[in-house]
Amino acid sequence: MSAERTVAIAGGGAARRLRALRRRSLWGLFRRSRPGMVGAVLVAIVAGVALAAPWITLRDPLALNPAVRLRAPAGAYWFGTDDFGRDLFSRVVYGSRVSLEIGTLVVLASGALGILAGIAAGYFRLADAVIMRMVDALLAIPPALLAIALMAVLGARVSNVVVALTIAYVPQLTRVVRSQVLVLRETMFAEAARSSGASDRRIAFLHVLPNAWSVVMIQSTVTFADAVLTEAGLSYLGVGEPPGVPSWGNILSDGRNYMVQAPWMTLFPGFAIVVCVLGLNLLGDGLRDVLDPRFREW
Amino acid sequence: MARFIVRRLVSVVPVLLLVAVFAFFLVHLTPGDPAAYMLGPLATPAQIDHLREALNLNVSLPIQFERWFLGALQGNLGESLFMSIPVPLAIWQRTEPTFLLTLMAVAIEVLIGVSAGVVAATRRNTWVDQLAIAFTSLGLSIPSFWLGLNLIFFFGVNLRVLPVAGYVPLGVSWIGAIRSLLMPACALGFISSALVARMTRASMLEVLSQDFVRTARAKGVAERGVIWRHALRNAILPVITVVGNSFAILLGGLVVTEQVFAIPGVGLLVIHAVLHRDYPVIQGVLLYIVTLYVFINVGMDIVYALVDPRIKFG
């Protein structure tokens, strides 16, 4: 990885060629990882559905139509209807938007906070003591329980779900980043930058962070999967998004009273969650195969 | 050895202390007056004043914390606002099903995880290996409540072999208790088995390539004996730590699973507390579960050290 930087001084053209080569070889490695490819396809499907939601659904996910309540999947209603006669296909499709939006925001927020806290902890002894004690304490609380307790005080709102999940998942990222920083700050290229007079902050963000990026990517993918899963659990329990929001957990929660009459109400949102989370987890496995040299089998 | 145990126990103190601080400040994260927020819009000013008094909200924050914390150290976590009984009593009344459920779930987790891991390792890089690991990894991606609902639908409603929901106390019938917890324990055990399976596989692969395994084979031990007696015994050690860590998934999943199966345990208690804004109970359960989780992991570390003579105690 440090070779790339050395060449960058030699000449722009060579560096560009080397980067392209490296990217292609990483892609080549990734393509050979079966879990990674399956995961990427699943995630692409869910993301595609979320983006294309208005064009692939025929009805408003919130529109009530008591005349067609609890219809089995058939004809115009691919996934059937729920107890208010809402189109379940529309609701599940729009549910992917809710899940992916929340997941993305949680990953961005916990990523930013985790990187900053991890770098601070890796570089300053005082910050390390304070931050890592807090991280240890937060890690001692099961994330799902922590999120539930936070939702109890914050109140059921989409933005609060993001806040609660961010607090629940930021400690893991912080710890991962810190451990990377501790290793990377002692490497030759960090030493070289230091001896040429670069400040700690410059080394941390320009030399250490880019090399910790792969680990951040792997952890973020796993966090994304966990966040989607926990978010579904929160809204299933009635402490996540307010009722009516077409999130997968809410649809499942509506459906549990109709398990016998209308099993499709729980079947389809459940499958959607599994496809999305499984895709993210497999993608994480594939990224780990490619990016984490400890697990790479040549 | 004694020094190791003492040091490990001492390391727990700052963690529990910080979690206590967190639990205390949780109440103060509420928008506006916590007392008014807890009692809802229908409360009279007199009721709010009364609660403010009961929760020590009228004194300064450090003194509030001091009073609450000294109380908590003596096991006084306040009174449930909704049930009007002391919080420790409320938790104690709900402990039996939760304890039994956790125990059964761990047993199932280890059973699924270790056997899948061993099978995967012995048939390395075949479709059996991939299937075993994929199966347990599926557990990481299935919402425990959805798995629970499907189990209820299949075994409870269609086949009618297990009770659909609820809990039969041990005092009434221990068979009934186990039957009522079998489905939730399977759901919980399955979702947390993936980490155990992966660790077992990795550890087994390492052990299987060692000399003593070759010696065992050379002196004519049957392959089954080599794998399950010689190799697994040496490979199981790192798995112990993973089982300890997996309690984070188990104890967190408990809340949702108990709700799905209507099991009157600590998880259901916390859900009711959340829906009724019963903060003393939320604080109490939070401290209770974190304490359990932390000490389970300390226990696992000590077991690990006791079982493996190669670990040096410094």
Largest sheet of chain A: none
| Helicity range of chain B | over 70%
Helix segment tally of chain B = 16
Helical percentage of chain A? over 70%
GO molecular function, one term (chain B): dipeptide transmembrane transporter activity
Family (chain B): Belongs to the binding-protein-dependent transport system permease family.
Membrane topology (chain B): Multi-pass membrane protein
Protein name (chain B): ABC transporter permease
Supply the key terms:
heterodimer, A: 298 residues, mainly alpha, disordered N terminus, B: 314 residues, MetI-like fold, 16 helices, 75% helix, globular, BPD_transp_1_N (chain B), cell membrane (chain B), transmembrane (chain B)
Give the structure's gist in a few sentences:
Chain A is mostly helical. Chain A has 12 helices and no strands.
What do you see in this structure?
The complex is a heterodimer of chains A (298) and B (314). With 298 residues, chain A is an all-alpha fold. Helices cover 75% and strands 0% of the residues of chain A. Chain A has twelve helices and no strands. Chain A has helices at residues 2-10, 12-32, 34-51, 53-56, 88-123, 125-139, 143-154, 158-184, 188-195, 200-237, 248-255, 264-291. In chain A, helix 5 (88-123) runs parallel beside helix 12. Chain B has 314 residues and is an all-alpha fold. Chain B folds into two domains: 32-76, no CATH class; 90-307, Orthogonal Bundle (MetI-like fold), CATH 1.10.3720.10. In chain B, helix 1 (2-10) runs antiparallel to helix 16, helix 8 runs antiparallel to helix 11 (193-208) and helix 12 (211-218) runs antiparallel to helix 13 (223-235). Chain B is built from 16 helices and no strands. Chain B has helices at residues 2-10, 12-26, 34-39, 45-54, 61-73, 87-93, 95-122, 127-141, 144-158, 174-191, 193-208, 211-218, 223-235, 237-260, 266-275, 279-307. The chains are: A mainly alpha (298), B mainly alpha (314). Chains A and B meet through helix 6, helix 7, helix 10 and helix 12 of A and helix 2, helix 8, helix 9, helix 14 and helix 15 of B. Chain B: GO terms for molecular function: dipeptide transmembrane transporter activity. Chain B: It is a multi-pass membrane protein. Chain B: One of its GO terms (cellular component) is plasma membrane.
